[in-house]
Amino acid sequence: MYAVYFKPKQLNIFILISFNYNTNKEILKLKEIKFFKKEKVVINYQEDKKLELIQEQETPKHIIISNLIKLLNQYLSGKSLDLIEKIDELNIELDLNEKFPTPFSNSIIEIVKKLKRGEIITYSDIGNKIGSKAYRAIGNVLRNNPLPLIIPCHRVIKKSGNIGGFMGKIDQGWQQNLKKKLLAIERFKTF
DNA sequence: AGGTCATCTCACC
DNA sequence: GGTGAGATGACCT
Fold first, then answer.
1. Catalytic residues of A
2. Per-residue b/e over A133-160, b at no fewer than 16 CB within 10 Å?
3. Is any atom of strand B within 7 angstroms of residue A123's beta carbon?
4. A102 touches strand C (CB under 7 A)
5. What's residue A97's pLDDT?
6. Which nucleotides of C are covered by protein (CB under 7 A)?
7. Of A72, A91, A131, A187, which is most buried by a Cβ count within 10 Å?
8. Cα separations (Å) of A185 from A10, A76, A132?
9. Does residue A35 approach strand B to less than 7 Å at its CB?
């Protein structure tokens, strides 16, 4: 499995992307997008998971991934674009089936996938849509989202209007601040 | 079978 | 505004 990481200009975090590449089909399969506060921790994680950091070169694999990074930078700088649509055009697939194998988790992800930039929904709303009162279980599914930004789980907030969890954290931390920033980037200045 | 959760509601203060 | 108990259900071990 391969990986790249980068630091967007607008945010004081590092973003690691891990993926597989099928040379025959020329398709890049996104495995995980993960946020880090410190570069040292990114390196530790990459070594620990034995991810191969890809080098700067003009292979198809590298071109796709550099386009993806360009896209994410544009998105994070406030450009109005729909990540999930653009990604489809780049020969990129999302690897989700093993993370969300059950009908319950699947239906939640389908709903969250359809959220447009600037749109928000509550855990409660999702529960109503799928006919379940297991609001905490919905949170648990989103907690395991391997592809934040692309599966826009930051657009799911609490019914009370509070921000709700992000990256497994429910109390004040840089993770919540990141969720707020992402919503602010999408013009929700109230958070 | 029992514990863990990125929630909600309702009853208080 | 805030806190705490109870409901709630999927998903782990």
1. 153
2. eeeeebbebbeebbbbbbbbbbbbbeee
3. yes
4. yes
5. 84
6. 7-11
7. A72
8. 10, 7, 31
9. no
Q: 3-class DSSP state for residue A10?
A: coil
What is the edge-to-edge ordering of all strands in the sheet holding A14-22? A52-53, A2-6, A14-22, A27-36, A92-94
CA of A140 to C1' of B2 (A): 18
Q: Are strands A2-6 and A27-36 parallel, antiparallel or unpaired?
A: unpaired
| A180 Cβ within 7 A of any nucleic strand B atom | no
Measuring alpha carbon to C1', the residue closest to nucleotide C1 is: A160
Cβ proximity of A18 and A32 under 8 Å? yes
> For residues A183 and A154, is the Cβ–Cβ distance under 8 A?
yes
Residue-wise pLDDT tens digits, A109-165: 999 999 999 999 999 999 999 999 999 999 999 999 999 999 999 999 999 999 999
A163: its two tokens:
């921000």
Judging by beta carbons within 10 Å of its beta carbon (0-12, 13-18, 19+), is residue A109 exposed, middle or buried? buried
